[in-house]
Amino acid sequence: MDFAHTFLQALIAMDMTIRLSVVLILACLAGLYSERAGIFDIGLEGKLLISAFFSAAISFETGNVWLGVLAGVAASMVFSLIHGIASITYRGNQLIAGVALNFLASGLTIVIGHAWFKKGGQSPALPNGSRFHEITLPFADAMRDIPMIGPIYADVISGHKPLVYITFLIVPFTWWLLFRTRFGLRLRAVGENPASVDTAGVSVIRYRYAAVMIAGVLCGLGGAYLATSQASAFGREMSAGRGFIALAALIFSKWRPWYALMACLLFGFLEAISNLYPNIDVFGVFEIPVQFMQALPYILTVVILAGFVGKAVAPRAGGEPYVKER
Q1: Higher pLDDT, 79 or 150
Q2: Are 187 and 178 in contact (CB under 8 A)?
Q3: How far is CA 112 from CA 49, 79, 147, 191, in A?
Q4: CATH number for the domain harbouring residue 161
Q5: C-beta separation of 6 from 151 below 8 A
Q6: From CA 279, how far away is CA 25, in angstroms rounded?
Q7: Interatomic CA distance for residues 206 and 322, integer angstroms
Q8: Strand 286-288 to strand 280-282: parallel, antiparallel, or no bridges (unpaired)?
Q9: What is the pLDDT of residues 243-252, one digit of tens each?
Q10: Beta-carbon neighbour count of residue 228 at 10 Å?
Q11: 160: containing domain
């Protein structure tokens, strides 16, 4: 009985970890593309937030969740374009431009949301057709009774929203694109030695814009997942620092896709534990308060940034505007 209960709790924790990691994975991969090309993107948080708002708003107005996703991706790409113009074309400070986007998204979502829905910056709850629903994978019900493997397949792997499966397909695709294609080789070279790439006749500006726009698409999917899958409405500041956690995971993973996946799953696991066990009794001696458990993912973010930011070697040209030599 004890083993069955423990196994059930483990299944619940794994399932929740996957659900909570999706936004982090998408935002982390967005930062991976951008920073591999030499553009540091602090604005991941703002892109997630603006995408979540427009995804919820358009889904509610049209009754079509996929139109909401497209709207969220488009909004995020507009923010990426602004970031690209500021930091690539006009060679502004990339970090300041990203912070400005975060403030802009925070203000715009509240002002537009209040004017649109009259609900204090929030959107109404999305009806059935305006949000995603779980997908049952083939043979999930038939395999449920198989010991160990069956419950894992039926209750952990199966039963997620479409964007969950899309996200976990994007990870190997990102690895293949960055490390097995000419486009990926050039994009990584742009972040390491843009002058050499430019000498070879490859446009540094074009590849940096491409990376920034890809980041916009991925953040758009992350924000859409927040509003139409993880929740069923938009709430004020619902990104809740996930863009910054994704940046910490990116540093922790040393800008590699598979490591990024593992780092994001770790952060998702910590959030899942804080939700499942808000108060943890330590050997009957003292109890860990719920506030500490809720803050645990953010505490780990600070620890990683403090302990790994100097050890993880970022792309050498990261954060530096490229000036073409004449």
Answers
A1: 79
A2: yes
A3: 13, 16, 51, 36
A4: 1.10.3470
A5: no
A6: 27
A7: 12
A8: antiparallel
A9: 999 998 998 8
A10: 29
A11: 11-124+144-308
- The 3-state DSSP class for residue 135 equals strand
Position 111: which residue type?
Answer: V
318: which 2 tokens? 């990261």
Query: Has residue 1 got a pLDDT over 50?
Result: no
Tens of pLDDT along 134-169? 998 988 888 888 888 888 898 889 999 999 999 999
Domain count, the chain: 1
pLDDT greater than 80 at residue 282: no
**Domain contains 168:** yes
Q: Is residue 322 part of a domain?
A: no
Compute the distance between CA of residue 98 and CA of residue 60 in angstroms, rounded to an integer. 29
d(CA 80, CA 73) in angstroms, rounded, equals 10
Q: Is residue 1 part of a domain?
A: no
User: Is 321 contained in some domain?
Assistant: no
Q: Are 290 and 39 in contact (CB under 8 A)?
A: no
Buried b / exposed e over 116-155, threshold 16 CB at 10 Å, is ebeeebbbbebeeebbbeeeeeeebeebeeeeeebbbbbb
Determine the residue type at 84: G
Single-letter amino acid, residue 289: P
Q: Which amino acid is at 268?
A: G
HSE-CB of 120 using CA atoms within 13 angstroms? 3
Least-confidence region, from 182-186, 239-243, 297-301: 297-301
- Cβ-contact 37, 289 below 8 angstroms: no
Considering only CA atoms, give the Rg of the chain: 21
